[in-house]
Amino acid sequence: MGRSFLGWLDSHFHFSFAEYYNPENINFGVLRVVNDDMVQPGTGFDAHPHRDMEILSYVIDGELTHADNMGNKHALTRGQVQYMSAGAGVLHSEHNLGEKMLRFLQIWILPDARRHKPNYGDFPFKIEDRENKWLPMATSIDNTASDAPIRVHQDINAYATILTNKEAIEFPVAKGR
Fold first, then answer.
1. I want to staple 87 with a disulfide (CB 3.0 to 4.6 A). Which of 7, 31, 116, 123 is the partner?
2. pLDDT digits (tens, 9 = 90+) for 131-150
């Protein structure tokens, strides 16, 4: 894994990202980025552009405030997820306006096509809905068999769980996945 420490931001990169470059570790299929970011209070990522990427941000702890040029502004807390389809282009910011450290996972998925219409959404998943079970969070726009509320432009399924009291659960992987 790669790492970047900028004082206000401590990031761990699961794939090549920013100054961490490993040509053997660019992506895993359509999964392009999984960054574990810790952002100091009163700081964050000022307005910057993205395009042609499906982006999920999963708040582990603290408060993440998103704003974009589509008129969206919202703060998310522990266990909540935001979704942004950058498509043809989005300008957005992400800040920790809270009083404690923000930790979140930023997950980028390569889209099934370029230049989709940009889109944003966020979901206040309840922590208890994932305790010792799999909570479906995101899936393909075309997946009619899933009740995951986040829909992305790619054939994926994203789940979360929190295991308590040394619990263990299995995840059945369908043939061909």
1. 116
2. 999 999 999 999 999 999 99
